[in-house]
């Protein structure tokens, strides 16, 4: 049976959906039923159709364990693909012998005839056929044994105080998003952000920000799109499109030996777009009528490293690509009546972009982000006029003064 290695799940094997559909066809199942004498010839076609339509994965699991002949026993119990994954439990209280239940907690009588080793093997190997199909905006709670359809995953690309990010490729048959026209057969390249904290509130805060902004205002071209989230091994993960570079690396990668009209125009468009995205974060109407009034959020950590560049993106017609704000991990949402609801001491914003409110110990407001955006624009203009080396030199000069005044 055709299979692929998932190196995000400990270098284990899974069978992608196209391979399952290619191998478990009605004609092939019908042949097996006839050859094994499991049904009368008169009923073989109908039973094969029932197996493929309702229990393709279950049948593939049983065949891989050389127990394909038991498929009709499972079906007679009313067990199908919707009952997967099976869950292991003791056959009786205090017994060392194990058996399996459906995901709904129903005992599987057929397994009484199986040996203990066969039951354990079924419980372990079933995951090869159960790689999920990811849907946009969904959240998944995965058991430790779950095999994810990630291939060619890279080691940690980015690490911060709160999370680490790695690149992964999702099999084209196992997602329903991030599809360019004519690219349906290509893997989705994604950035998987794994939070260090197991505290659900930190995760829920970032997820809710993305979901609420998208649902109230629609996708913004300059705000990163959250694809889906999942929990695995007690850790929360957020999955985004993989960008080609962050803005600082983009400045470093693209040398400007002279002022280029087209690049200047593109830069101004991007700066305008980033301001528009930040404005969306700062103020919007919640759809819940039980919470009337304008609400606002702040980003909390605007910097060049949290602006990403896509060379191409769905809906973007600019040959130079597009910039997007990312990393809403420090963002928070407040009612307009609670302006400045945050303590600067608890915000780990990069020193270069901290506003005067930080060392004056003022409460944090949206002005914090506006200051940071202004600092970002100053670096942007420095790059346009003098290039990336000037940004580095400018930072070094500010660093000497910054130490003197306790901020940078």
TrEMBL record:
Q: Which InterPro entries match?
A: Kinase-like_dom_sf (IPR011009), Prot_kinase_dom (IPR000719)
Annotated ranges, domain Protein kinase: 151-408
Q: GO: which molecular function terms?
A: ATP binding; protein serine/threonine kinase activity
Pfam families membership: Pkinase
Superkingdom: Eukaryota
Protein name from the UniProt record? Protein kinase domain-containing protein
Lineage of the species this protein comes from? Eukaryota, Fungi, Dikarya, Ascomycota, Pezizomycotina
């Amino acid at each position: 049976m055709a299979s692929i290695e998932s190196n995000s799940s400990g270098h284990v094997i899974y069978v992608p959906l196209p391979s399952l559909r290619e191998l478990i066809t009605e004609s092939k199942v019908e042949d097996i039923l006839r050859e094994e004498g499991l049904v009368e010839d008169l009923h073989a076609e109908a039973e094969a159709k029932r197996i493929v339509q309702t229990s393709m994965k279950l049948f593939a699991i049983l065949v891989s364990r050389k127990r394909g002949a038991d498929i009709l026993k499972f079906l007679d119990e009313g067990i199908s693909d919707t009952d997967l994954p099976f869950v292991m439990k003791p056959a009786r209280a205090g017994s060392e012998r194990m058996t399996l239940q459906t995901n709904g907690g129903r005992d599987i009588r057929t397994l009484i005839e199986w040996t203990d080793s066969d039951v354990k093997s079924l419980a372990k190997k079933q995951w090869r056929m159960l790689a999920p199909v990811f849907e946009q905006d969904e959240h998944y709670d995965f058991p430790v044994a779950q095999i994810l359809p990630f291939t060619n995953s890279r080691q940690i690309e980015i690490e911060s105080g709160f999370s680490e990010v790695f690149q992964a490729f999702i099999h084209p048959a196992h997602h329903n998003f991030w599809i360019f026209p004519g690219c349906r057969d290509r893997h989705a390249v994604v950035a998987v952000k794994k939070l260090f904290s197991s505290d659900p509130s930190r995760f829920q805060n970032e997820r809710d920000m993305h979901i609420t902004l998208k649902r109230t205002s629609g996708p913004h071209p300059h705000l990163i799109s959250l694809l889906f989230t999942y929990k695995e091994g007690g850790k929360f993960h957020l999955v985004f499109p993989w960008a080609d570079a962050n803005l600082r690396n983009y400045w470093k990668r693209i040398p400007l030996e002279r002022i280029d009209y087209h690049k200047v125009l593109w830069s101004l468009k991007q700066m305008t777009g980033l301001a528009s995205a930040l404005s969306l974060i700062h103020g919007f109407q919640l759809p819940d009528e039980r919470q009337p009034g304008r609400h606002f959020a702040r980003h909390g950590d605007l910097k060049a490293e949290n602006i990403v560049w896509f060379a191409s993106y769905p809906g973007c017609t600019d040959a130079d690509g597009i910039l997007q704000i990312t990393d809403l991990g420090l963002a928070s949402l407040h009612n307009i009546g609670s302006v400045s609801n945050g303590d600067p001491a608890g915000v780990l914003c990069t020193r270069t972009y901290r506003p005067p409110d930080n060392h004056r110990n003022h409460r944090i407001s949206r002005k914090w982000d506006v200051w940071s955006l202004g600092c970002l624009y100053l670096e942007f203009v420095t790059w346009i006029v003098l290039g990336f080396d000037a940004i580095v030199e400018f930072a070094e000069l500010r660093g000497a003064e910054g130490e003197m005044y306790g901020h940078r």
